[in-house]
Amino acid sequence: MVNPYAERKFVVGALLILVILVYLGRLFHLQVIDRTYRLSASSNVLRYVTQYPARGLIYDRNGKLMVYNEAAYDVMINPRQLSEFDTADFCRILGVTRKKVDDAIAGARKYSMYRPSPFLKQISAETYAVFQEKMYKFPGFFVQPRTLRKYTDQTAAHVLGYVGEVDEKTIASDPYYSMGDYIGISGVEKTYEELLRGRKGVNVYLVDVHNRIQGSYMDGIFDSASVAGTDIYLTMDHDLQAYGEKLMRNKIGSIVAIEPLTGEILSMVSSPSYDPALLVGRIRSENYQKLSQDTLKPLFNRALMAQYPPGSTFKVVNALVGLQEGVVSYETEYTCNMGYHAGGISVGCHVHDSPLNLPEAIQNSCNAYFCNVFRNILDNPRYSSVTEAFQQWRNHVVSFGFGQKLGIDLASELSGNIPESSYYDYYYGENRWKSLTLISLAIGQGELLITPLQMANLAATLANRGYYYVPHIFKEGADGRESANRFSVIHETTIDSTWFEIVAEGMDLAVNGPPGSGSTARIAAIPGIRVCGKTGTAENPHGEDHSIFIAYAPKEDPCIAVAVYVENGGFGATYAAPIASLMIEKYMNREIKRTWLEKYILDTNLLIRDEEND
To answer: Can the peptide bond before residue 554 be classed as cis, meaning omega within 30 degrees of 0?
Structure first.
């Protein structure tokens, strides 16, 4: 008879042997074959040094270098490798206090006992040389080479943006970043971060008991090389940008210049500006605090974020809507008796010839003329109500890119405001407002708010006779990458291209009309270049009116469109028109021959007047 217990004994024994063999096999794999676990276990004798890639360089459209890199050194701390060291000597070399050391060690231990973190950022090359020689005396500390941004000059701070240390939120959401990494915070640096940053690498070194590197671990099989960031070319013309910033010195406002046929931004000036070098390195936080508290708001990008009434520049839009809706024609004439007067409401106007046809009304910037045009648009018998006609007017206006973000490849763009009919229903009551109620919209006032970028886009749309491309700042990458497809899409207005020729004639007359003809922008005329422009003066309840001007040139085959806002600058022809004209001359001729006009603008200091008003 077979003993059943004997059979069970053999089964249990076999299972036990099998388990032992599995454990032995796994142990063999961990200790002999798979060396990553050995690497992890040996972290106390290994040093992992991140290889930060060189950030991509930034050039202008003509290949002029604007942003490059400079070597910098961070002192890193690894809590796991810390042991007693000469604190006094350590503090003397690095120029820090004992409290700084104690606080940093506590912070590093809180962050991670195994992963290194920054102790002191961006030490000088001289300090690095001294510290490197004595680093064996300070176990747990090592130097991490990296690069910092440098600028060829102080130009285009708002466009270029700046780089700063990554925050905890970004680290948690993006595994690429670690504590101490840098990331684009604003401008081009932010928008094209992934292109500019490249890819980090890592070197693993053996370190002796004195914290000295003995060589690469396992002949570098665990190392990975960094990949440099991609160099990029902007659409911006550096020399034009620098000239625009020079013209806007001691003034508050903005200049935006666009190439109409492509939507490429040639210049984007926001004034006052700041030196981009102020937001680099260890001084960044302190300088940012000072800049953010400056009452002139140098960090505020007025080109994208300032929202103003467009003033009389908006008359060209109402003219085009009136032409499209059939309520005005080239020959239509209206008289002006020092303004428009109806229903107890008066909109004043300056002295000029009367009556005027449409191009002449643009030339003279007649308020009465465009009040009549606007009322005819809203009282058009084609529509069942003023509300319906207003909605049609608004649809036309929005097709120019107003009341919405254009979609530029820079952050913080605002949309401006083109009021909805519901706004007036709420404010006045449904069906209780009429065309005369909204008469301020006829001359670019009231609830209208437009950004300088949108006004420059309007100038480009006029230059193109009815269409535009989304304005953008990225031209191409050194890797052959081109700007996004959305920047090559044509955006057509709801206005037939035929009507733009009438407006072009009026804008031509505004600049190039004969003396005594009432041209409001003769100061913008450039010998040899046919400039088309329109002045504007935006009412400002807080002080002097804003000076506005839009223009494009030459009249045929335009290559540049410009919008200029000068806050508290008064009439459009006083400052905005000369500045726009000088920008056009600079771009097209590469030199300025009207030095008298340039001197007039450069010598103007509107900030003094603001300080006196305060």
So the answer is: yes
Comparing CA positions, the residue from 65, 453, 405 lying closest to residue 268 is: 453
Q: Answer for the pair 483, 591: CB distance below 8 angstroms, yes or no.
A: no
CB 519 within 8 A of CB 363: yes
What confidence tens digit (pLDDT) does each residue in 420-464 have? Answer: 999 999 999 998 999 999 999 999 999 999 999 999 999 999 999
List the structure tokens of 569.
Answer: 């600058």
Q: What is the DSSP string of 163-191?
A: EEEPPHHHHHH-TT--TT-EEE-SHHHHH
Number of DSSP helices (H) and strands (E) in the chain, helices first: 22, 20
Domain 45-232 and domain 238-274+302-613, same fold? Reply is no
Q: Strand pairing partners for 221?
A: none
Q: How many CA atoms lie within 13 A of 194 on its CB side?
A: 3
CATH number of 238-274+302-613: 3.40.710.10
pLDDT the model gives residue 33: 56
What is the distance in angstroms between the CA of the first residue and the CA of the last residue of the chain? 115
Cβ–Cβ < 8 Å for 220, 203: yes
Q: Which residue has the tokens 């004595």?
A: 134
The strand pairing partners of 233, in sequence order, are: 59, 476
Nearest Cα to Cα of residue 157 among 48, 283, 291, 337? 291
pLDDT digits (tens, 9 = 90+) for 314-368: 999 999 999 999 999 999 999 999 999 999 899 999 999 999 999 999 999 999 9
Question: What's the pLDDT score for residue 5?
Answer: 54
Q: Are 533 and 504 in contact (CB under 8 A)?
A: no
Please give the structure tokens belonging to residue 441. 């919209």
- Contact yes or no for 569/576 (Cβ under 8 A): yes
- Listed by start position, the domains of the chain span 45-232, 238-274+302-613
Structure tokens at 381: 């018998």
- With a threshold of 0.90, does the pTM exceed it? no
Q: Is the dihedral of CA 395, 397, 403, 408 positive or negative?
A: positive
**Cα gap 453→516, rounded to integer Å:** 33
Q: Residues of the chain whose pLDDT is less than 70? A: 1-14, 23, 25-44, 209-213, 609-614
Could you please report the per-residue DSSP string of 15-51? HHHHHHHHHHHHHHIIIII--HHHHHHTGGGEEEEEE
Query: DSSP characters for 247-305?
Result: HTTT--EEEEEEETTTTEEEEEEEES---GGGGSGGGHHHHHHHHHH-TT-TTS-HHHH
**Contact criterion met (CB below 8 Å) for 247 and 602:** yes
Angle between the N-to-C axes of helices 576-589 and 238-247, in degrees from 0 to 180, rounded to the nearest 10: 160
Amino acid 470 reads V
Q: Quick check: bond before 355 cis, omega within 30? A: yes
- Give the span between the Cα atoms of 319 and 356, in whole angstroms: 14
Nearest in space to 458 (alpha carbons), one of 252, 555, 313, 268:
313
Cβ partners under 8 Å of residue 539, min gap 6: 309, 311, 445, 545
Paired strand residues for 346: 341
Confirm or reject CATH 3.30.470.20 for domain 45-232, answering yes or no. Answer: no
Go through the chain and tell me how many residues it has.
614
Distance CA 363, CA 400 (A): 22
